[in-house]
Amino acid sequence: MYNLTYEAVNWNQSASSLAKIFWDQQWKQMWFPEEIAVSKDIQQWRNFEHQETYKKVFGGLTLLDTIQTNIGMNEIAKYNPNLQEKAVLTVFGAFEAIHAKSYSYIFTTLCHNDEIEEIFQWVKKNQLLQYKTSKIANIYSSIKENDLVSLWKAMFASVMLESFLFYSGFFYPLYLGGQGILRNSAEVISLILRDESIHGVAVGIFAQNIFNQFSKEQQDELKNWGYELLLDLYDNELRYTDEIYRGTGLEDEVKAYIRYNGNKALMNLGFDTMFPEEEIHPIVMNGIRNEGSTYDFFSQKGSTYALAKVEPITDETFHFDILLDD
Amino acid sequence: MKSYLTLNNEILNHYHQTGKIDLEKDREATRQYFIEHVNQKMRKFSSLEEKIRFFIEEGYYEKEFLQKYSFEFINKIFDIAYSYRFRFQTFMSASKFFESYAMKSRDGKEILETYEDRMSIIALYLANGDELLAEKAIRAMMEAFQPATPTTLNSGKKARGELVSCFKLSMDDSMNSIAENLGYCLELSRLGGGVGVNLTDLRPLGDPIKGIANRASGVMPVAKLLENAFSYSNQLGQRNGSGVAYLNIFHADIEEFISSKKPNADEKIRLQTLSTGVIIPDIFFELMKKDEDIVLFSPYDIYREYGKRMSEISITEMYGELLNNPNIRKLKQINARKLYTEIKKSQFESGYPFEIFDDNVNKQHPLKKLGRVKMSNLCTEILQVQQTSIINDQDTPNEYGLDVSCNLGSLDIHHATKFHDFEELVDTAMRLLTQVSLMTNIKNVPSVKKANQMMHSVGLGVMNLHGHLVTQNILYGSKESIEFIDYFMEALNFFSLKASMLLAKEKGETFYGFEISEYANGHYFEKYVNKLEKEPSELVKKALGNVPIITKEMWRKLKEDVMKYGLFNAYRLAIAPTGSISYVRSCTASIAPITERVEIRDYADSRTIYPMPFLNNDNQHLYVEAYDMNVYKIIDLYVAAQKHVDQGISMTLYVTDKWTTEQLAKAYIYAWMRGIKTVYYVRQRLQSLEECVACTI
Fold first, then answer.
1. How buried is B109 (Cβ within 10 angstroms: 0-12 exposed, 13-18 middle, 19+ buried)?
2. Where is the Ribonucleotide reductase large subunit domain (chain B) (predicted)?
3. What are the beta bridge partners of residue B412?
């Protein structure tokens, strides 16, 4: 093994045009679930009508983020030959772990131990949930050394998970939070969403860089494979939605949202959209825009503060001539 | 699903998709809100008489103040209120009013008051039997004056909180004082108050106690105690108490204090809900300019050596002396630029600490002979003298000093320019605020009670500046906008002085310490009686509407009157950040620029979409968002206003994540150089990922 040459990651070279941007953006968004006072939701939770749906939504999200940490980001990072992208993906993986833990944080705050246990059992038994998870996980596990096709497929699957499959779950806390119901849990979700949207875009772009190296025939073949995977997952999502949202009357709204995000995922991958445009519930749409909303400083943390860019104060800092001109 | 919430959300959705404002959606949301919610829950009365009787008999209103008027007069006040045919301009203002201000039945099921009812009751309550004042008050409030939230919320109610809700306390370097002040903090947060506490006089970590070295725990554990005290008392779960701790930048614990707000600080010292503020004397900026180190001191040494607390001396004046005195320990030496960079880092990451420019505050302080202004409050607009209480052991009575309760109200600039008589408007506002002072009795905090009785301090401010500028076709930050606020605030200052002088004349009483103030010797008026008189531009003249331009001659006359009759209020003006109150009145906040044309407001438990007042598809370009403005122009505008304000102005700085700590430092240094007294939050807008990818690809 002594003939292996190890290469150090060199951030001075622009190996991947966007890796540094994704790296910076992700770190700027650093957060921990403990910063949000989910306990303020307890009172509302006690009288909340659709507890079962809410718990299942979070159970499902936990599972997706768990495989994304344990398998997804790790596998893709492992086989991605670009050292900078590898670093970015590793950081993404760390954030996925924070996300998976965040759902637990919400569970622990709102639910009793036996309820939590029950939900984790439900996760293991629910066939639709297990179906989509194993579908994605299998693609992750099939990446082969020096095989760009299998790597690209894993990236495609990852974007499906981050930009598409999460949203059947995200819908509910956003929908409720926008109406002032379980606001603080929704705040956690909006922070997670902020991360997931970077992950989707980043992995999508990394995937596009690989995709462009393929021949036309290969591309067509992979495109077919991709759309087929999406349709298969979509079909499963429809049934999953019917099952967990039963009784809330929200099924159609959720499905529209799933299609909307399916299109987004395809766009991240540089593919044409496949679902027609349709109206999404405005409260849910506004829930995603977490840049710059005005926070009450006395209550929620707010997702608008981020790490500082440090530069030293110099003599120049005290000069104002230019400024006073206009 | 409530259809009005959906409608309200559609405005933003539509705006983001098309860039167009669809105000019809918001109007429809407001209509639906009344149909689905307000009208359903509103208790109906057959007559005003029945309504008032119900309120008194059921114990909702205090009866004493109502009994001071005839029923005919009460009826007249309500008639005046209803004659305005008031309509909520936005869904935000309607929902904010009915959720937060209108009286509800005890079980919360019925709404008992309309907007007009609430305003009438405030007028009758504060006028306290004075019919002339009550009539002026209802007109002022229906048009252009709004008392602060606690007064608006609580006036006239039998089961009520206090009329004021913001306080400043000074803590002394003794266990008695720490314990006593913690008690005050509990009491004041029970009243829903925001409390500022100055920790500058506490000895730092590792200082001696009773001569034994390395015993003191420093300011951080006290800050933690305060934080816990504030979150313990939470208004029956409605809102946590809130507070801010201030510390002088030359205090030996300053580094721990600054790091305490960073999200990744050690949990033992991390302050989650307590706000922080740093007091910065000129000498710090001077040393920083020369790239020198600063030396940190202990208030314990200062008190032993000079018999004065650290907060009672000007560090700028004493710095050389402190350095040369061998009995003053030089506890730590740090590079000023590095320390200031740390402060900027914390501000990026958390918005804190606030900054108080100590010498800018005290140089311009009209009561400087009475004592120093040592700190500010939770919103950094209150700047009043304080004297530390001596808290003795239980067998000896305490010697109470002076602390502060803030008693605030705001004029809506847009409607103030339209009010038929600006002088009357300001006079009425000052009288109403003075009434609040006279009716307030914070008996559990004797230093606050004492100061209120002796000083009658109030804080009249303004809001809706940006909104008004948009209606006048003036860009925020432009030369005209600065000229406008300059003239407006000068007139406000003038008439508030006049009102306070008239109150003193009528009552034959001046505030404590008037004789040694800069008002009594006339110094305060120098800048006005010697000013360069000039005509404002046509645009500004039109924007000023009915607000008169104050001449030198008017100032000369007022100076004479003030020197002769005195003033009733020790402090008069302060510009608060105006949150909820400006939403109810459909105003833009304070004199601040807007942050978003269509704002998403997350307030405690709800999310509401708020299109800015007067916004339509033709004037969007005038509503430049704060983050897109030149920060130096914003500061210039505040400088123009600050010249005419005896206390402070809440000034938030707006940055994007493209900014570096150095750029932020530069903006603060500029503010300091221009004489700004305080800086409130730093607010940051994160670039979204699409934006940053878009500019790279």
1. exposed
2. 555-577
3. B463
Tokens of A205: 């772009």
- Catalytically active residues of A, by annotation: 103
A320 in reach of chain B (CB within 8 A): yes
Residue spans per domain, chain A: 19-291+299-325
Q: Which of A205, A286, A298 sits opposite B9 (nearest CB)?
A: A286
> Who among A35, A294, A314 is closest to B595 (CB)?
A294
pLDDT at B693: 58
User: A320 and B600: CB-CB below 8 Å?
Assistant: no
* Contact criterion met (CB < 8 Å) for B595 and A292: yes
B616 is catalytic: no
* Cβ of residue A285 closer than 8 Å to a chain B Cβ: yes
Domain spanning A19-291+299-325 has what CATH number? 1.10.620.20
Continuous H helices in B19-70 = 23-33, 39-41, 48-57
Summarize pLDDT for B348-384 with one digit per residue, the tens.
Answer: 888 899 999 999 999 999 999 999 999 999 999 999 9
Confidence grade of residue A305 (pLDDT, cut at 50, 70, 90): low
Active-site residue, B377 included: yes
Task: Tell me the C-alpha distance between A305 and A281, whole Å.
Answer: 28
What pLDDT does B376 receive?
96
By CB atoms closer than 10 A (0-12, 13-18, 19+), residue B137 is buried
Q: Which of B24, B144, B142 is nearest to B87 (CA)?
A: B142
Q: Are B247 and B278 in contact (CB under 8 A)?
A: yes
Tell me the pLDDT band of B392, cut-offs 50, 70 and 90: very high
Q: Which CATH number fits domain B144-164+407-588+629-651: 3.40.50.720, 3.20.70.20, 3.40.190.10, 2.40.37.10?
A: 3.20.70.20
Please report, as a single letter, which amino acid is at residue B188.
L
| A323: phi then psi, degrees, rounded to nearest 5 | -65, -35
By CB atoms closer than 10 A (0-12, 13-18, 19+), residue B287 is middle
Mean pLDDT, rounded, for B142-171: 92
The more confidently predicted of residues B266 and B24 is B24
DSSP per position, A228-246: HHHHHHHHHHHHHHHHHTT
Of the listed ranges A199-203, B395-399, B410-414, the least confidently predicted one is A199-203
Contacts of A44 in chain B (CB under 8 A): 605
Which chain A residue has its CA at the smallest distance from B607's CA? Answer: A178
Q: What is the pLDDT of residue B155?
A: 95
- Distance between CA atoms of A262 and A281, rounded to whole angstroms? 16
CB B251 within 8 Å of CB B296: yes
Q: Do A198 and B689 touch (CB under 8 A)?
A: yes
What ranges make up the beta strands (E) of B427-552? 459-463
Q: Kindly identify which residue of chain A lies nearest to residue B194, measuring between CA atoms.
A: A298
Q: Is some CB atom of chain B closer than 8 A to the CB atom of A283?
A: yes
Note the pLDDT tens digit of each residue in B561-608: 999 999 999 999 999 998 888 999 999 999 999 998 998 876 655 678
What pLDDT does residue A292 have?
Answer: 41
Q: Which amino acid is at A208?
A: Q
User: How far, in Å, CA of B365 to CA of B511, rounded?
Assistant: 15
pLDDT at B13: 81
Per CB-CB distance under 8 Å, the chain A contacts of B658 are: 309
Smallest Cβ–Cβ distance between A294 and the set B1, B237, B602 belongs to: B602
Predicted TM-score (pTM) of the model is 0.86
Rounded to the nearest angstrom, the minimum Cα separation between B263 and chain A is 8
Q: What is the rounded end-to-end Cα distance, in angstroms, of chain B?
A: 42
Query: Percent of chain B scored above 90 by pLDDT?
Result: 81
Q: Is the pLDDT at A323 greater than 60, yes or no?
A: no
pLDDT at A325 over 50: no
The domain segmentation of chain B, as residue ranges, is: 144-164+407-588+629-651
H/E run at residue B416: helix B413-416
